Amino acid sequence: MKKRFSKAARQTMLAAVTLALLLAPFVCLCVQKVKNEALDSAFLWTIHAPHDVETYLSEHGLRPDSMPVSGTPDW
Q1: Which contiguous run of DSSP H or E holds residue 51?
Q2: Is 75 helix (H, G, I), strand (E, B) or coil?
Q3: Rounded CA gap, 16 and 10, in Å?
């Protein structure tokens, strides 16, 4: 009967499988951490965006109470 793989090839395959099984949880945790940080960043952006727009308008001399209302001729 013929051997399929040499001893060195079997050891290499065993090392590769062991390494993959050991590193898989760390890769999954890193992906989850990056995903959560991206979601947190997007959430904080949505909270701060209206304030940033108001700050931008006030820096350029535009006050919200002096803005034209929609449906009026000034609009």
Answers
A1: helix 7-59
A2: coil
A3: 10
Q: What is the pLDDT of residue 26?
A: 95
Residues 6+ away with beta carbon under 8 Å from 71: none
pLDDT tens digit string along 5-64?
Answer: 888 999 999 999 999 999 999 999 999 999 999 999 999 888 888 888 888 888 887 776
74 token code pair: 């000034």
Q: Coil, helix or strand for 3?
A: coil
Give all strands (DSSP E) within the chain, no chain letters: none
